[in-house]
Amino acid sequence: MGFLLLISFTLIFCPFLKRKHFVQEEDVRLETTRARFSNVLRRHGELTERLSRDSDKMIFERLQKEFEAARAAQTQEICLHGEQWNDGLLATIRERLKWFRWSLYQVHMEAERKAMPGDTDILPGLHFHEKITYKVGTKGICCLEGARIGIQYETSFAGEPCEMYHCVLESKSFLEKMTVLEHTVPFFLPLREAENDLLSSNAMKFIDHVGDLLQAYVDRREQVRIIKEIYGNQIGELYHSLPYHMIEFVLEDFDCKVTVSLRYAELISVLPTRVSVLAWPMHQTKKSLTSTATTNKKGNGASGSQSIPARLSYAEDALRTMSLPEAYAEIVLNLPQALEQIFPDRNSP
Question: Residue span of the signal peptide, if any (predicted)?
């Protein structure tokens, strides 16, 4: 009898134990790969940040000084609202650039004619050119020397100011299309694509689109920063792309492992367009093990020892409609009850 029981035990549980051992080995290899990948991402992020900071720092400081000088020299600041911001205004700005270039040329020719560089009588000609700065929402638009139009973008989050960004357009004549001469927009945002698609046909739309790209990027980045600061002890892993349009993180401070995946179809989006929240049971109960073994005995459970995740619909709905910190708080608040309903026997003996 004992021999028959041993054979029965071997037939029933050995395949299960082998599969369990195989799954454990797979988990170890997966964790090793994940750790290596996490290290690569960390080093890549540090390198990217350093390169971006070093390459953009000098351009930012120089353009910032130029914009400050233009602001200091302005004779008038005009705030535009609604339909006041239109293509006609850009035509006016380009006309002012033309007039400004002509004024500089006249002064230069007069200086050469008189051969008196220190004579102040030739300088007042510059004052006939009115220097106006236009304010459109969080954008400041002004004329810069050298036939250039400067746009300064102010970003913010939760009412607090964040970085400033600059974009300088070159406008040599009405016969030539405007081009982006230089900028401080992060390299991973599609500025050149926007330039090719919009600038030549609708400069106003291009200027607005770049502002939307920058503000949405700052919004997504700051949302991730806040959940890391507030809930960092609950987050086991967190990955994101440079523009923060792909975000993934794992919650491990619970009975189940919860994976969150967010995708933003548009870089001007603040809320994700694709959301996935899955709960993975960390431990199987004796009842589930016995059930798995029985299933294997019948020949229908080739991968029965593998845990099956459950979708957390309430969490996905929260992430689609709330900011990431607000949605995270909602998820954590209702997570114990949701897990109890999905896995009612997860704590049973």
Answer: 1-19
